[in-house]
């Protein structure tokens, strides 16, 4: 992070070394701040920069337009917990037993500590680190954000939260007074570094406020910062401020209207954080990454047009997400990047931007996509990008390579799409390219062999189902006619 | 341990340091000896101090009456192997894969060496340690008592043993002569530190004799001692000396009479060990803990009145056991402690009495109950105490919190008892307190998530059953109507 | 390895020390070279030294006749991958999760790196090491021969290979040109230390050539060598040179004729390697071990007479293999060793010959059989030798002790054979020796308890089958009437 003292020291050092130095030069060699903003269940088509017709996101769009937006950004899983585990570990969740959301009613489990989080890696390499918002990666002490590499944490450890403190705090209080101890995580108090806090603001606004606080604190450090700002919006429960819903008089559907209000509040938060960066002179030195953890949930107000299906699906609507990069002078302005990238790429990419080397024993499933990105080339030429979602007794699967996407849904045979020219997955071309399809399926089968058994299930019945059906039943998943 | 040489050294040291010292003072600051006596399948009502009307246990009663007896002492499991694994590791057996007895016909398995036994911990902290009697925690070299922290071991490694050497030695000899190598562990020779011995006494008397030998040896050391005296009596086979049975002319039932004789021999042994302690001036410096590993087996002569059911059950008769503490000047005399305690508490409690700190990476599921015990307060106020017993395709479960006990048996719905006022579990109050019940069940469900798969089964068919039924099937175990 | 410089140094050292020294003396105290030649699916009766009437193996026979052949040599498993895993790790494959062949269509799996291979051990102890031919123990980087203790590797990593380069290279090229990436491993290019090579010779001749190259290279080193020469011949596909088939004009059966030609080519290769040893003056200093990885496959031209069944079976034809040792002045000449030995014995035996100590934490399931072998005594007196082969829903099993072999096939009851006098397993004597049978089965049951779950299956459907049937179902495998 560029701060006055740093510049002074740099200048002095330059003078001593009798070497000329300029601000720009110093800037180029310094580690950038990284601000990773993650929305929750945000639809592909629900931001202005992806063409939303009803929801407005002026602050997000401003950044996206001054940076580069991505048309083919994939996350590692089509729902929350595994997608986040993938993002922060740089690994397919299937490789670390994190294919399911953590148990609904709590557990002592979490993403294995043997997997060093991106945050820990950046912390080890001189970053001041913060996480704000939803965690969903383990609430036992050893899995707490502060133990996974975040100097600062403000938020809630579960998989979601109600939005209005005056309502959820009252419900929580009533249950406590009845002597109950196992209370639904959506209504428990928020925390700051492990200490319960009394939050009073609408949660999206509260998280934005804390992000501003973090930025202000970070600039007093001599370190660059990494901030993981994980909004729970617009995840259910659908709860928006009236004033935010009032921004959308033309939306009549109650759910859509509420959802729109929630996105609007999120957008306001992004604006506030950007203001804080500007005020502190850090915007030019900060890579801002914005994305959703998975596709929007169609039954809860989201819109993934033109993608098929939504959250949970192996079709594009499940795991192709809205995304942009913003970093003046480093990220092309006004560009649309139309090659596939994966959230698994962030770990090695951020590592490279931080000038730090990932330990040899830390496995990563993505790759540093920065050079290809800067050259507007496909970072994943001939690579395979996988999506595997276990269901009750079978699995849905997808594998992407170059223009092709192979897709397996339920008990239907594998299909093949030219996804570059058929984004809607309408035209199955498997009959035209049987060997290509078979080859891609075989590659995915090969990939599957070192998947781990799930370390947990969202509900116990899922575990029983898994075992009774001898899951993963990949002999069915990877069956082809050839 | 206070011995003449020790006192002399202490006195000399005191003189050199010009500081006054008294025996009592020295005693207070010294680590006590710990004598942990465990009976096998002894019924709650089968000791005088718990009100037995037919069996007499004069030596046990004398200690119990001069110490404190416990009305609500729980063990970690309602049968042998897991209960002992829990006691010595301080962990619920479910957390370490030890939910079943080791295989009947032998194996190379045992309680994972990654779990430091209480004995190893005390040995590391200066104790001279001994185990005498039944082991049942692994008979491969790495699981041998001498490898788990016991300086001395005398006994048999399996899950039980016949009692009359003249009989079992002959049977063993016959089988050896036929060239057989896999001989039922109840009739194989006993051992001393891994070397086979020729035992000639009735086993209960033999174990008492060895305990006396250990005590005599221990007093020659400058260390305190920890002795784990694990009688197999009155576990089947029901074999008593005639003279001991003759003590119970009024007992007509053959099984009960034999059982009574076995308990009487055990009581005689306790008396002998106490005599050895007295003779060596160690009684006042020794914490004696006496308990059973689980409830009595009703079909084999035991009596758990007023508790329901017996060995193997999640009802009180399965895992609430007779217990006392004796330690002059430290344990209240003539007291009945009427709060719940757990055998899982021993590890941290003994550690505290030994003035030693448990390593941070050693997980413990109980707590140091000493201060609460001394203050006659509930050491487990608001805590949860669990009992989980896997059966063929389902599990029985119990959870205790304060006055409440929630109980799940087979496919019956969860029940709730005010166990403080309804020790017989007669009055289900679940309808009156549905939220309390649900809350306790949810807590147990939460606890269950990091249970481990069993590392072994008593018989292979149990393993097949486990897998065929997709056990543990907790979605059934923790189902509530609410 | 004795080389001129070594001798010179030895002589000089001897002179300095004023001690007489002779070549023979030096030879006795030096580590021998070890040449381990493994044929693939070679039948018990398909070498001259075991009495083949139609196939001639002059070079192999010459060595066998000048050395010692074995009538009761067992491998650890009746098919390829597990047998090789057993050989190189010194462990029953069931103990390390390697009970199945690696997946047909590739995986990132391999024999756990926690098991130090024999090659790594010998390399650590000063050997120059090479592997040539079939690997089949993992093709991900961490499982590559060069990572498992082989300084040199030439061959193919999969479970087999086609033999004629002009054919398989063309097929490979066609598939590559179609843009396919997952190509059948039998037709992919061979490699040298991880680098693809263009092989032009018939594969058996190519492997022989590389073995000669290795020997020539090894003699330039000051180290002894260990060469693991793993021919894929005469494993399918049945592909022989016409000139080799022409050696067998009397064999009319097409498969047998081709098979015979393949064996003949293998024999020619053995001759070439021996010539290289002779030329370099190393034959007298080299222990040559020759064996097959499992029994011959009866449907593919092999002959295991007089043994019952073949590859894959728990009968003798499945895992009793042709074997000889050759080492002038160390291995008796012209002897037939008629006691059981196991390929699991190689690891500790080679370690002893190398004068090196196996690390305490390296478990081994065999034993050093050298002293007993030299004394022509049974190295496995009273020991148990196991064979366990999992099938679809059940397991076949065999256990050998002294003259007895207990056998369990499918759902038939256990049988007992006096295998010393009934090599054909014709006369079930279980009724005469029920206690012996039961005792052996109980020992095998005891052995089974610490078997590991398979880490992989040849095909996914096998894994599903395994789980759906709650395998291993040992309660059925070890059921006896008694």
From TrEMBL, chains A, B, C:
<keyword id="KW-0378">Hydrolase</keyword>
<dbReference type="InterPro" id="IPR000917">
    <property type="entry name" value="Sulfatase_N"/>
</dbReference>
<dbReference type="InterPro" id="IPR050738">
    <property type="entry name" value="Sulfatase"/>
</dbReference>
<feature type="signal peptide">
    <location>
        <begin position="1"/>
        <end position="26"/>
    </location>
</feature>
<comment type="similarity">
    <text>Belongs to the sulfatase family.</text>
</comment>
<feature type="domain" description="Sulfatase N-terminal">
    <location>
        <begin position="32"/>
        <end position="356"/>
    </location>
</feature>
<dbReference type="InterPro" id="IPR024607">
    <property type="entry name" value="Sulfatase_CS"/>
</dbReference>
<protein>
    <submittedName>
        <fullName>Sulfatase-like hydrolase/transferase</fullName>
    </submittedName>
</protein>
<dbReference type="InterPro" id="IPR017850">
    <property type="entry name" value="Alkaline_phosphatase_core_sf"/>
</dbReference>
<keyword id="KW-0479">Metal-binding</keyword>
<keyword id="KW-0106">Calcium</keyword>
<dbReference type="Pfam" id="PF00884">
    <property type="entry name" value="Sulfatase"/>
</dbReference>
<keyword id="KW-0732">Signal</keyword>
